[in-house]
Amino acid sequence: KIIADPSFVSSAPVVNPPTASTAAFQVINASVTIQNITIITTNTVAYGILASSANVTISSVNIDAGGSPSNLIWTAGVAITSNSFVSYSSITVQNAYGLYIQGALNAISNSTAASNNSNFYALYLLYADSNTITQSFFSDPPGYGAFFTSSNYNTISQSTLKANNAGANLSPLSLNFASFNTITQSYILNADGHGAFFTSSNYNTISQSTITVDSAARRALSMSGSSNTINQSYISNTNSGLCGTFGGSYNTISQSTITHPSSGTCLSVSGSFHTITQSQASSPGQSILVAGSYHTLSQNRITSNISGSAALQLSGSSHTVTQSYVSNLLGYGIKLNANANYNTISLSTVIGGAGGNQYALYVLQDTSSTILNSYIQGSTATYIDGSTGTLLNSNILISTYTGGMGLYMSAGVGLSLSSNVITGGPQGAGIYLDQNNAGSIYLSTNTILPGSRYG
Fold first, then answer.
1. What is the largest CA-CA distance in the chain?
2. Contacts of residue 166, Cβ cutoff 8 Å, sequence gap at least 6
């Protein structure tokens, strides 16, 4: 053991590594303890503590290389391999990694690490598996709070990861080719750039955490890879940039809140087979943009307040929206873009604006859209424009505009309309089919309620 003399009551002994040394402490034997020591270097060295052996305990150690010049420690404040413990310790460096882990089964608790260089990270896991980090704080204002490379099965809990940089990929949390990691009950903060950034990383989970950024050009959440999960978390961008992007495949957001107090988009979804469920997305601008294919949105609340656009916009094909509430009081509720084919909306409430041309559901130049068992209300409840094979069954369609329609179809090909209850505006119509439609139009057992000028 390397511990402070018990006679040091008010302060820890200070170690200043000599010139040309590797570290203040270089540990090459197993089962070594370094406890209650302060390391303040005035000479340039590679490490504060370098432990190349296993089973090293570092407790109540303070490493301070925050002075001048900026490379007093130039590789890492602390570097450990496997089966080691760091607790109640503080690491401050500038042009170096704060805590560098290359190994497995380490435990970090109640500690802080700070770096100050975009080429280094406060916490760096390289080929590091099954490590546990809890109740700790990692900050690198111009760079990365925590950076994982090819590191799997690690857990960060009850911790804060912080950065303050608008660089292209700089973020408080960056996962690169890293899988099966868990971030829980933690704060991920960036005042100017990305929040959590996943690159080719799979099966990772962020749960019960807050991701907040303030950036016009970057995103709170940027995810590629597959089978990642965001659960019971809060995601926000207080500037005009996106809250989040979802690429890859089979990623899930559940029981989470995605909010944008500015005019930007909450979430942009691409790739395939993603699931968004039991979540809330709200923005004065567009809330969710969906592209790609085979995505499922269920049991969500999606709200916007933007003219000329939609709270939920679907592009791509074969998406399902079910058991959800979608509202935009100044524009469209849901818009199915051109070539957004084979999509289904069911068991949902869709609200558009009450002014002219603020359609609750806008079906634009797509094929085989299906709308089932839903409540749809707007200036015109449903506007089908240049689309083929649209089917509406067992819906309630209500126009809230004086000259509005329950359903308006223009330049369409084919329509199946059955078992719907439809209300038009006082000077409008329940169903309006203009002269430019073609194909077979089936109307069966619909109820058009009185109150509009034309049925």
1. 97
2. 192, 193, 215, 217, 218
Q: Quick one: which of 116, 114, 160, 117 has its CA closest to 137?
A: 160
Which amino acid appears at position 60 of this protein? S
Prediction pTM value = 0.94
Position 167 scores a pLDDT of: 67
Given the structure tokens 């390391």, which residue do they identify? 39
pLDDT along the chain (455 residues), means of 10: 76 88 95 95 94 97 88 96 98 96 98 95 98 98 95 98 80 96 97 91 98 88 94 93 91 96 87 97 93 97 94 96 97 94 97 93 96 98 96 97 96 97 96 93 95 87
d(CA 280, CA 299): 9
What is the CB neighbour count within 10 angstroms for residue 153?
17
In DSSP terms, which residues pair with 174 in a beta bridge? 147, 197
The DSSP bridge partners found for residue 175 are 148, 198
Residue with tokens 């370098």: 50
39: which strand partners? Answer: 15, 63
Q: Among candidates 188, 278, 191, 290, which has minimal Cα distance to 235?
A: 188
Count of alpha carbons within 13 angstroms of residue 266, beta-carbon side: 31
DSSP H/E element including 351: strand 349-351
Residue position matching structure tokens 């303030």: 214
Inter-residue contact 321 to 334 (CB < 8 Å): yes
